[in-house]
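Worked example 3. Consider a protein that binds 1-O-phosphono-alpha-D-glucopyranose.
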Amino acid sequence: MPKQRVSKAVFPAAGLGTRFLPATKASPKEMLPIVDKPMIQYAVEEAESCNIKEFIVITGKSKRAIEDHFDISWQLEENLKSKGKHAILDEIQKLSEHQFAYIRQGLPLGLGHAILCSKPFVKDEPFAVILSDDIIDPEDHLLRDMIKIHNKYQATVLALEKVPKEEIHRYGVVAGKEVGKNLFKINDMVEKPTASSAPSDMAIIGRYILTPDIFGIIEKTKPGKGGEIQLTDAIKTLMKKRPVYGYLFRGKRYDGGDKLGYLKATVELALKNPGVKTEFKKYLSTRISSLIEKEK
Ligand code: G1P
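Given these inputs, the predicted complex is written out as structure tokens:
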């Protein structure tokens, strides 16, 4: 089979965002801003930086703001133009440059089912899956490294991170044999195990490069953990037929779906944001000094 390039990314965004209520009652979790961009924009830019050109968003109820965000806003553009605000105008125009497709996942049937919804658009190509609430520091190039591994093996690649025992129950967890630097050939995986039954401390984080044969497998996958059709279960079935690789990520990731993770992401990305970093650093240093003083 000829080598296929990853040119499409799927962004599951149909979740209810219950960990972030009430903020997510009427607006999507993916639109929560980190400094000056919504979380999903960081995810889209990460895909863009890997030369991915087509974006497929799996949406649900109360998610229309995502479509508006990546749409042309003629009125806003005219307004910025007339005021001579060219820098921000450029940024706004870039948002609607790419090709987006939106698919509604009518029922909350799980991540596996969300991915299956993208089948008519992905067709017969390998593709990236990005869970936008897992925020990866843009300097770490995780997706780019995963695509390189996919290009070499033409196989499924999962992003992995070592997580502490107390957090393991929140993730899909894998076991594997190290076959290269930070590269594992996976031989077991369990969705959200208990700490005592987890096959290792390596959790799947929100980046996947999948091959299109996953669709047929998801179609036959029975509901698993939480009564949902789990992507982890489908990949485990795939693993019996062909190799699945895990890339152990050593960079920075923040769980933007969790309040504390979201705050950490905000602080870290603010410290890198050219518009606010200098003032913010000053503020933070003063604030921390006063906190330390109080604790003495
Ligand atoms: C999903 C996957 C899980 C993975 C996690 C990464 O879980 O089912 O295997 O470890 O994403 O963020 P969710 O966070 O949607 O419950």
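Take a moment to read the result before moving on. Residues 169 and 194 are 5 Å apart (CA to CA). The pocket of 1-O-phosphono-alpha-D-glucopyranose is lined by residues 111, 131, 134, 171-172, 191, 203-206, 230-232 (CB under 6 Å).
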